Amino acid sequence: MSGRKVSQTAAAHLGEGMLGPALQRYFCDYLINQRQISPRTVTSYRDTFRLLLSFFERCRSRKPDDLRVRDLDGSTVLAFLDDLERHRRNSARTRNVRLAAIRSFVRHATASDPLLLPVAQRVLAIPSKRFERVAVAHLTREHMQLLLHAPDISTETGLRDRVLLTLMYNTGARVSEVAAMKGVEQPPQYHPEGDVWKHTLLLLEQLDHPSAALALGALLHDVGKPATFRVAGRIRFDGHVEEGVRLAHGILHRLRFSREEMERVEALVANHMRFKDVHRMKDSTLKRFLRMPGFDDHLELHRLDVSSSNKNLENYYLARRKLEEYPEQHLKPQPLVTGADLIGAGYEPGPVFSRILEAVEDAQLEGRIHTSGEAMAMVRELFPK
Question: Tell me, which fold does domain 156-326 have in CATH?
Answer without folding.
Answer: Hypothetical protein af1432 (1.10.3210)
